[in-house]
Every structure is written in structure tokens, then in C-alpha cells.
# Entry
Amino acid sequence: MTLACPQCNMENTYQYGTNFVCADCAHEWPVEQSTETNDDVGLTVKDANGNILSDGDAVVIIKDLKVKGSSITLKMGTKVKSIRLVDGDHEVDCKTDMGQFMLKACFLKKT
# Structure
């Protein structure tokens, strides 16, 4: 299980001694603090602005996203209604006019 950085929400983190370190923003935080807040609360997903997302929320895509293996591009500003949160690398399961997709929360903004 990867642990998201509390500062930038990216999951490129590793443990270094008694701290976790984010390789993207170089933020460090203690291991004890991380295990208490993330394991006891359960699944917590935050958008690009740090707002907590929940099932049924509406979000907006903040960046053009190319879909792997397809010529489809999800355009910036596309509104997605009734999201569903799932565990894994891509935390948001949603349905758009172009089909059903799994998206990373760091590319979404809560409306």
C-alpha cells in the first residue's frame, strides 16, 4: 500500500528511518503520525485543492487527460457527476459522455 503525501497528495513516497519522505515535493513527516491518521480513518481521497471527496460528488477535470490505448482525450473543464471512490492507484470511478473511466483525484476539482 502506498501512502499519499499530506502536502501534495502524490503517492510517490518512501520510508526513510522514522519518517516518510515524498519524492515529488521533499516533504517529510513521522511514521507514527501517518499510521494513526490514514489507517484508522479508512479511505480518504482529496482533490487537487485538498478538499475531501465522497461518493456522489460532482467534480471538474482540471487538465486535458489522454486515455491510454485510445484516441480519446478528456478535456479540461469537463464536469463529471456522481463519482464513486475506490481503493487503488486511480481512486475515482466515474461515467462521462465518452464512457466509464478510472481517474486520479489529483486531476479533479470538487464543484
Remarks:
- Residues 34-41 have pLDDT under 50 and may be disordered.
- Residues 93 and 102 are 5 Å apart (CA to CA).
